[in-house]
Amino acid sequence: MIQLAPSILSADFSRLGKSVETIEKAGAHLIHVDVMDGHFVPNISFGSAVMKSLAGKTSMAFDVHLMIEEPDRYLEDFVTEQTEYITVHQEACVHLNRTLQHIKSLGVKAGIALNPATPLSVLEYCLEDVDMVLIMSVNPGFGGQRFIPSALNKVKRLYRMKNERNPKLKIEIDGGINLSNVRSVTDAGVEIVVAGSSVFGCEDVAGSVKKFITEFK
Q1: Mean pLDDT across the chain, nearest whole number?
Q2: 111-147 pLDDT, tens per residue?
Q3: Where does substrate bind (predicted)?
């Protein structure tokens, strides 16, 4: 099943709880939580307190994307009963395998995010150890960017690797995803679609979620 994970980075923070309620009722599957520190990426978003404020107010699981330096220092902060994934960037981890094992020791599924210029070869010795790979189809740091077309071929190659070495692996994509290109990425092998401004930037947020889900069928 293909899942939609709207990114609350693009939501109206003055009514965040209501926004999450809206996407849940419309059929969204996960809450994508983009955490930025102003160092690993040139922007600052929010920390664990914002995410935890939603715990218990929705049945959707948290899909946490840490765009931060030294992620091991903060992993525990993002663990709740609703946290399903914590994803880190390969470039931010001195000992990537150790970080992945740390995440799993917390009872959470571990993911690796690959920036547009990061090759799939970095997965060579850890593909079997991860639950999800997040393909960034924009350079991380800001919402509303245009989709980078080379990400599509990257997804296709990763899908072949998954089938050969880790069939249970989930492939996620984030960046510039909208109704005009979502079918191409899901056809290529994506199973979790992150959408930010193309969901929360619409006047009819619920309608946008429903349109995405219709594209998945």
Answers
A1: 95
A2: 999 999 999 999 999 999 999 999 999 998 777 778 9
A3: 7, 65, 141-144, 174-176, 196-197
Sorted by sequence, the CB contacts under 8 Å of residue 11 that are 6+ apart come out as 19, 20, 200
Residue 78 burial by CB count (10 A; 0-12/13-18/19+): exposed, middle or buried?
Answer: buried
2 CB-contact burial (10 Å; exposed 0-12 / middle 13-18 / buried 19+):
middle
One-letter-per-residue 3-state SS of 46-67: CCHHHHHCCCCCCCCEEEEEEE
Q: At what angle do helices 205-216 and 16-26 cross, to 10 degrees?
A: 40
How far is Cα 54 from Cα 118, in angstroms, rounded to an integer? 32
Task: Measure the N-to-C terminal CA separation of the chain; round to a whole number of Å.
Answer: 9
The CATH class that applies to domain 3-215 reads: alpha beta
- For residue 68, report the phi and psi dihedrals to the nearest 5 degrees: -140, 155
Residue 37 marked as a ligand binder: no
Give the model confidence (pLDDT) of 67-80 as tens digits. Answer: 999 999 999 999 99
The structural domains of the chain, with segments of one domain joined by +, span 3-215
Q: Does 32 appear as a known binding residue?
A: yes
Q: List, by residue number, the catalytic residues.
A: 34, 174
Q: In what order do the strands lie in the sheet with 192-195?
A: 3-6, 192-195, 170-174, 132-136, 109-114, 83-89, 61-67, 30-36
